[in-house]
TrEMBL record:
Classification via Gene3D superfamilies: MetI-like
Transmembrane segments: 20-45, 120-141, 153-176, 218-237, 268-289, 322-345
Subcellular localization: Cell membrane
UniProt protein name: ABC transporter permease
Membrane-topology annotation of the record: Multi-pass membrane protein
Domain annotation ABC transmembrane type-1: ranges: 114-345
Organism phylogeny: Bacteria, Pseudomonadati, Pseudomonadota, Alphaproteobacteria, Hyphomicrobiales
Native species: Neorhizobium galegae (Rhizobium galegae)
Cited InterPro entries: BPD_transp_1_N, MetI-like, MetI-like_sf
Amino acid sequence: MTLPETSVATRRNRRRASSFATSVLRFVVTVVTTIFGLLVVTFFIGRVIPIDPVLAIVGDRAPAHLYERTRIELGLNLPIYQQFFIYAKQALSGNFGTSVLTSNPVLEDIRRVFPATMELATIGTLIGSIVGVPLGVLAAVRRGSIADQIVRVIGLIGYSVPIFWLGLLALVLFYAQLRWVAFPGRVDIVYEYSFSPQTGFYLLDAAMQGQWEVMWDLFRHIALPGGLLGYFSLAYISRMTRSFMLNELSQEYVVAARAKGLSETRIIWFHALRNAAVPLVTVIALSYANLLEGSVLTETIFSWPGLGLYITNSLQNADMNAVLGGTLVIGAVFVGINIFSDLLYRTLDPRTRSR
């Protein structure tokens, strides 16, 4: 290799290293800024809500000296910036305080209930992806047809109808009238003491232990709330799939493929959908994050013992440590999935690596 060629290669490597370092720095700054903003928001939520955390601990009949001592122990007598510093330090170390409702550390309670929320959101995302992607492809391929109109109406209903109303309607129909599903909850009381979950993911535990009767009961409990979340996920995923596919089907490579005589099935499923799958992966990941943070009403309606129901019960009992801890965890998970989907998008699409 000649000297000029060596110099060009060196400059190219330096540019690549500089670009990589800039991307890493930008990523770190984004993560730190987002987490800081999340801490600020949750901290001021705890200060804005008209609930006295001291009264929630000592009760409204406690003497004045006990009230003041508890207030000092909680650090509420300190300036607001010192309170935020203490709160951020404890939160980043995983110390969210003790729950007034359960008398357990909040982090311990979250570890206990969060697998139920993840299990529910996973079922909903699987339903939304498996059904929503083919529906979106069908709507795009038959644009303007009756099939397209039906898919768009399904998506419109999913966006428009309040989830609590649809959940109550589903309970009346599928539980009270048809008896197709089990009573709200996660598992029948008959199996509560005979079934010993290890991971917190009941379906996985039942399959690993070979308890198929328990697994069938778990499916009967999760079918309705999981199907409801799956429908709302389906509405979003099918709409985005339709949009991505319409964009891909209008590209020149599709015209060229048809000119070469490739079958329409191969063009749609092996070429257009393959290119649309890159942004679609991000959509599915964000849909999963939305189900994790947005299943509060669903868990409340179906008495599902997840993080959403835990936060709701804590809020009703003025348990602000639990409310803020749960909110912070949900926010952190949403941010994490968002960052993961962005990295996955950059990995799958080489065109974004140079940006």
